[in-house]
């Protein structure tokens, strides 16, 4: 990737850091709905999204729970935390669309963080964002009813895709919210009757 392209996306990266990234890192394109990281897997590279969207989630008793999304110019602090100590992942990560990812080698990251202090800006900002995301997830689970949780999630997805029409199945919503498809379908129908949204095949339009 040319200096001007990477510097435009990460203006705090200097030319020396960009040259190092170009020389020692890989950039891959992963098709949509592909798993790129599993719980228990050793983290050898830290993903930085250049284009596209990732879904980060955890599982318990065969249920999934969305933790946060990673969009362009963002990285995964959970992967960073595991990779920096040569540990295993505590989360799963999956592409939600065709996604271009910069892979930072975990075994060189400690040295780079000392050599290029500006790299710390990327991960420090991500810690603040993900902390807020996780607090929001906990707040929704504890203090909001399912209809509010669904609407909040749909509004978040609309903001991510810049569209009021969200392409998503009832099962995918159930996975994000750690519930059953039947519960999601029932609540969505009620929300449609209340004129909060319009349901179509594999799509939901927020009103």
TrEMBL record:
* GO CC list: cytosol
User: What SUPFAM superfamilies does the record point to?
Assistant: cAMP-binding domain-like (SSF51206), Winged helix' DNA-binding domain (SSF46785)
Ranges for domain HTH crp-type come to 144-207
Which Pfam family is an annotated match for this chain, by its short name? HTH_Crp_2
Which keywords fit this entry according to its UniProt record?
DNA-binding, Transcription, Transcription regulation
Q: Would I find Heme among this entry's keywords? A: no
- The chain's coiled-coil residues are none
Query: Its Gene Ontology molecular function terms?
Result: DNA binding; DNA-binding transcription factor activity
Which InterPro entries does UniProt cross-reference here? cNMP-bd_dom (IPR000595), cNMP-bd_dom_sf (IPR018490), Env_Response_Regulators (IPR050397), HTH_CRP (IPR012318), RmlC-like_jellyroll (IPR014710), WH-like_DNA-bd_sf (IPR036388), WH_DNA-bd_sf (IPR036390)
What name is this protein filed under? CRP/FNR family transcriptional regulator
Q: Which organism is it from?
A: Nonlabens ulvanivorans
């Amino acid at each position: 990737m040319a200096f001007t392209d990477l510097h435009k996306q990460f203006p705090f990266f200097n030319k020396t850091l960009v040259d190092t990234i170009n020389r020692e890192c890989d950039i891959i394109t992963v098709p949509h709905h592909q798993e790129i990281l599993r719980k228990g897997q050793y983290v050898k590279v830290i993903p930085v999204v250049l284009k596209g969207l990732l879904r980060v989630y955890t599982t318990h008793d065969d249920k999934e729970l969305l933790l946060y999304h990673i969009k362009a110019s963002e990285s995964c602090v959970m992967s960073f935390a595991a990779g920096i100590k040569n540990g295993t992942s505590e989360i799963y990560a999956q592409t939600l669309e065709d996604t271009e990812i910069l892979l930072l080698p975990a075994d060189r990251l400690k040295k780079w963080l000392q050599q290029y202090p500006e790299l710390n800006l990327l991960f420090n900002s991500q810690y603040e964002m993900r902390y807020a995301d996780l607090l929001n997830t906990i707040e929704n689970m504890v203090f909001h009813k399912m209809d509010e949780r669904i609407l909040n999630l749909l509004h978040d997805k609309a903001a991510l895709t810049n569209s009021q029409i969200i392409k998503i199945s009832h099962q995918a919503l159930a996975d994000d919210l750690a519930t059953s498809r039947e519960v999601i379908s029932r609540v969505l129908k009620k929300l449609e009757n209340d004129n909060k949204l319009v349901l179509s095949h594999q799509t939901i339009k927020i009103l």
